[in-house]
Every structure is written in C-alpha cells, then in structure tokens.
Amino acid sequence: MQLEVIQTETEWGTIVDEWNQLLKESITHVPFLRHEYLTAWWKHRGGGEWPESTLYIIAARGNDGRLLGAAPIFLSKNHAGESALFLIGSIEISDFLDIIVREDDLDIFLDAILAHLTGPDGPDWSSLEWYNLLETSNTLSGIKNLASKYDLLFHQERTQPAPIITLPSDFDEYLASLDNRYRRELQRKIRNAMGYFIPVEWYDVEDENSLENEINDFILMMREEEEKDVFLTEEMVSQFHAIAQTALQAGWLKLSFLMVGKEKAAGYFNFDYDDRIWVYNSCIARKFGQLSPGIVLMGLLIQDSIKEGRKEFDLMRGDEEYKYHLGGQDRFIVHATVKRK
User: Fold this and answer.
1) The two domains 2-160+333-340 and 164-314 share their CATH topology (first three levels equal)
2) pLDDT tens digit string along 222-258?
3) 121 half-sphere exposure, CB direction, 13 A CA radius
4) What does the alpha-carbon distance between residue 233 and residue 219 come to, in Å, rounded to a whole number?
C-alpha cells in the first residue's frame, strides 16, 4: 500500500470517479463522503466554519495503482488553539463522516495513516479530532487498537443520537408499527391538511433553472426560526446553494415543498441516495402552523419513500421528539480524539 498526500483542489479533482466508486464499497457509504459533496463543502469551508484550513488528504494505492483508501482530512486549529487534523465535512453540516476504505483494507490503511502522521514526513499536529463517526464504524476500534503502537492516546465520546426508520413495504404496515397515539395523530394531521378549505399538495424540485429561487424560498422560511436565522450567515447561505446544486446535478437531491394554495407552507431539503432518504434540513411557514405542515409533509414523504421502494428513512442527527413519534430508532455518532503522549 503506497500513500500519497493530496494538498491541492486540482489534484483532488483528478480522482472523482475512483473516489466515488471506492465509496460504494466502503465501510461507511453516505452522501456526505461523495467527492462532489466534499468539494462543495471545501469550497465554502462548511459555510465559513473553518476559514483557516489546509487540505491534507491521504490516499493509498495498491501495487496495481488501484485506489484502496482515502482519508479526507484537513489541518486547522482545535478549540484549544492547537494544530489538529479534522475530517473534511466537520462539524456542523455533515451528519456522518469517516474514512473511505473497504473492510478488508481498513486495518492496514489505518496503520499506514498513523505511521505517516507520526513519522518524519507527517505534518505538524497535536491531535486528530474526528467528529460525526457512527458509533458502529470499525474505524473507531481500528484506531483504538493501533494507538499504543504509535504512542498515542485514544478517546471517544458520544455526541448525538441519529434516529433512523426502517421502512416496510407498505404504508399501512408502517402506520401499524407506531405507538397508537402517534399513529392517530399523524393520520389526523394528514387528513386535516388534505381536507383543508384551500388545496394542499406537495412537489419535488426537479428543474435546475428554478433551483436557486426554490432554495431562496427554503432559506426564507428557515429564517422564521431565530436560531436558524443566526446560523444562516451569508457564507452559510452560499454553502446551502452549493450543496443543493451539487446534489441535483449528481441526481440525489430531494427538495420537497408542501403547498397551501399557491404558498409554501413547509419544506424538506433531503437526499435520496443509496435506497435511503436522508433528512438534511427543514423549514416551516408560521402562518400555516395550525396545519402542522412539517409533520404532514414528513408523513407524505415517508409514504412516498415506501411507494418508491426506499429501505430506510434516515432522520440523522438530533433528538427532536417528532423523530421518535414517527418511529425513529436510535443510533449514535461519536467524536474520536487521538493525541500524542
């Protein structure tokens, strides 16, 4: 296994196809590790989260030149002001991260990464700060097992739950799986919305020419929540547009709106990727609050996902109550830290 370090966007751009093909066979296959997502994230540094950062991707190839592993990382300062290595996509807007490698190559790739980072050719760093790994990722146990070999200290901690719904083949079966109270509540809200005196319907955005305006509408509704309004800086807005454009062009954007007459009442910015719907962000128009438009649209999207044969409905990071009312089952993400002794 031969390592190479990628430190320019131009060089990174030459391995798009190899990167995405390897991801399909990797230990963690999520849209946040797609080449096009990560490069869109890097262009805006996560919406301005990392203004001072340096690309430091570690790739591994076999003797035949085939890409065997990719560690998408960058150098920046951690909260203590020390030089640290983070996974590209950290921290705020990429729900799941990891390295990209097949299971059979994981241990040797991790060994090669740590040998390089602790060797004379490695960068100046005091810690690895790897956020948003699923607790089930074998990357965690792999690093833990290798830490002592390189005189390193390893620690991991849970940071957030990330509920997921396993979808059956029939919507009625899904409804039957819910607690009686929450099933009746969901059915009532959908029925009330569909019987509203103004027509209620929903649609997916598919036209690239209208995407910019649709995202602007989405962001305008997001701003109705004070916390989200503060979050939506000018750079973060640019980041959202870039991710939406990237996902639409790649074929896995699912941007959906619930309409009450001619007005948008709620929206979901999701990804439709690898037989799963990934619930990325949401917005609600307060003036239609009595219709519970967010829950109504979520129920309709779950129904549509089952109809289209999707296997899972990933509610991603956060422990909001509605996720559990809709049948979400917890997984957890962790923050892994590796420090020099």
Assistant:
1) yes
2) 999 999 999 999 999 999 999 999 999 999 999 999 9
3) 10
4) 11
Whether residue 286 contacts residue 224, with contact meaning beta carbons closer than 8 Å, is answered with yes
Select the CATH number that applies to the domain covering 2-160+333-340 from these four: 3.10.20.310, 3.40.50.1240, 3.40.50.2300, 3.40.630.30. 3.40.630.30
Is pLDDT of 134 > 90? yes
Decide if 139 contacts 99 (C-beta within 8 A). Answer: yes
Q: What is the mean pLDDT of residues 37-41?
A: 98
pLDDT value at 35 more than 90? yes
What is the per-residue pLDDT for 341?
Answer: 82
List the domain boundaries for the chain.
2-160+333-340, 164-314
Q: Is residue 339 exposed (0-12), middle (13-18) or buried (19+ Cβ within 10 Å)?
A: middle
Cα–Cα distance, 279 to 39 (Å, whole number): 21
pTM: 0.96
Pairing of β 127-134 and β 332-340: antiparallel
For the 164-314 domain, the top CATH level (class) is: alpha beta
Secondary structure class of 131 (helix, strand, coil):
strand
Q: What is the CB neighbour count within 10 angstroms for residue 332?
A: 16
Closest CA to 77 of 44, 52, 57, 56: 52
Determine contact, residues 217/241, Cβ cutoff 8 Å: no
On whether the CB atoms of residues 153 and 147 are closer than 8 A, the answer is yes
Which residues on adjacent β-strands are paired with residue 264? Answer: 259
